[in-house]
Write a structure and sequence with these properties.
The complex is a heterotrimer. By secondary structure, chain A is an all-alpha fold. Chain A has nine helices and no strands. Chain A has a single domain (3-187), classed as Arp2/3 complex 21 kDa subunit ARPC3, CATH 1.10.1760.20. Helix content of chain A is 70%, strand content 0%. Chain A is globular, with a radius of gyration of 17 Å. Helices cover 33% and strands 25% of the residues of chain B. Chain B has eight helices and ten strands. Chain B has a six-stranded mixed sheet with strand order 6-7-8-3-9-10, with helices on both faces. Chain B has a four-stranded antiparallel sheet with strand order 2-1-4-5, with helices on one face. In chain B, helix 6 (158-170) packs parallel to helix 7 (188-200). Chain C has one domain. Chain C is 74% helix and 0% strand. Chain C has helices at 11-14, 17-33, 37-53, 58-81, 85-108, 111-123, 127-163, 170-194. Chain C is mainly alpha-helical. In chain C, helix 6 crosses helix 7 (127-163). Chain C is extended, with a radius of gyration of 24 Å. Classes of the chains: A mainly alpha, B alpha/beta, C mainly alpha. Chains in contact: A-C, B-C. Chains B and C meet through helix 2, helix 3 and helix 4 of B and helix 7 and helix 8 of C.
Amino acid sequence: MTTRDLVLVALFTALVVALGAVPGIPVAALPVPIVLQNLGIILAGAVLGAWRGAAVAALLVVLVAIGLPVLSGGRGGLGVLGGPTGGFILGWIPAAFVTGLVAERIAPVGSPLGRTFLGVGLGGLLGGIVIDYAAGIAWLLAMAPNEAGLPLGERLAKTTLGMAVFIPGDLVKIALAGVITHALGKAYPIARR
Amino acid sequence: MGIDMDMHPNAPVLLDDGRPAGPRVRFDGVAVDLGGASVLRDIDLDLAERRIGVLGLNGSGKSTLGRLVNGLVAPTRGRVTVDGLDTVADGRAVRRKVGFVFQAPENQIVLPIVGEDVALGLKTLGASRKDAAAGARRALERFGLGDLVDRSSHSLSGGQRQLVALAAVLVMEPALVVFDEPTTQLDLRNRNAVARAIDAMDAAALVITHDLDLVAGYDRCLVLEAGRVAFDGAPAEAVRFYRERAA
Amino acid sequence: MISLYRPGATPLHRLPAGPKLALLSIAGVALTVTTHIGLLAVAAAAAAGLLASARPPGDLVRGQAMGLLWITLVVLGLAALAGSWRDGVIFVFRVVALVSLATAVTVTTRTADIQDLLERGLSRLGPGGERLAERLGLAIALVIRFVPELLAHAAALDEARKARGLKASAPRLLIPLLVRTLRTADAVAEALDARGYPGTGGSAVAQPSKTSGDTAA
């Protein structure tokens, strides 16, 4: 890891923190404004690549753990990590990694828009939705009691259904990440790592 | 065959009163290409004056020349040495001798608290946490910035930032400081404060600037044009040359 | 950035960070395996009392609660579908206890103390861990240093957008903000190199044989 890698990871993390503090942005297709913070996580993987992207998410988790209000809405501290939604936050680490991995395989920096959109899109779907939701829901189910003795498959399906309200927003963010990554590749290209 | 000290390429250059001048910076057939474009060509220089100015239009290669001196940029061809140390092979040793003050001080002050940032350089030189903090406080006090030691770096004004950035470099006691347009972003009062701070330094200075008044009393002044040294001499003539070329 | 730590003199404030985190971990496991409603009710009340005694900022408690609202509704819905009111009650008590305890630890422990603990832990892993600890320290400091700069830049971008009468959009904000972030990172890395910061050496050196690859890409 060079000094530059370290600084890139830290500054990108600062950006993700800053995105938690800016107001949500309205999107035509959605009833509520979108919060930009987890778009920042997808972008960390898409722009910096798998390893540095995962390092951004990990550094963010450390900042939460040491008690800084770095998450959207000024949240932070061990209560967020230890609470029932902690899995979604911890899941950002593999989510950024997988996003970066898929993006760099399919669409190297400088690829045309369609290809970048495809690479970041698939990476974002796999990392930001499949992996992050799997981590989040697994964590939640570990914490939620099951005195009623429901079978795991049913709990899984119903919880996923409950969390599905966030998926349209996430899909919009993944599409935005594709467009933004492509624009950035032209404005300020950097190699993924 | 006796060695003529004056001819030895790494011999220190002495002032009239016998004190050594600045460290000896030599450029031997230096060229720099960045991203396929030629930025500097045919640079042969032997610099040892205490105050050296560098003028030139935007894109003339001034900043790259400055960055060569402490190894932030490596020559594509030729070599640059500081007191005989190669800026690439002996990069770390060269950076101990040569400090660098950037045009945008907000990116140079990297730690959240002013005192911590000034102490960072001392810590990289191996000072303990306590010694570094004490050294940082002294360095800030020398500039009359003692009351900033516990301030947040973000809260500083533009002029304070440039002076803090300079203090953070001088605390490491470099023999030479390269300034990359140190007054470009400043109002007149802060510009004067920075000019005075440069004049007061014990260290030698290589000052890249568009501020023609800044170089007036300097010992030597270069003018760069399209990646070459187009003029090398006294500041008054250098400024006259530069004005004619820029007209 | 203002830490969530609130100064005070409660017993929780006096307990060192290490034991406090160890106790929190044990409590976390205990609360997660317990299904006894009475015990959980007592734990939730005690934890909430502990948190209240530490005087947390009101915004933090509200933000934390809002962040848990939806997930709680989902779990309660699941319990209702299963016809098990017990599941819902256990979950609520458990979450109140767990989140209150963890938040109480955050509110009563200095950020620097948890960071020290983390860095000391890493340093014990040998020279590699020491280097990692030192870099983590620098990375945390850089984040704290540059969040306000990026927020100020985001505000300036928003002002420029309004001056041009354009609607707010994510790319309009994020592309220039990302360019600023990457450009600042390059300048900061160069400044650290110039001050002799011991990285792996010469990261900013752009030379054909040792190119960083990024500028050429």
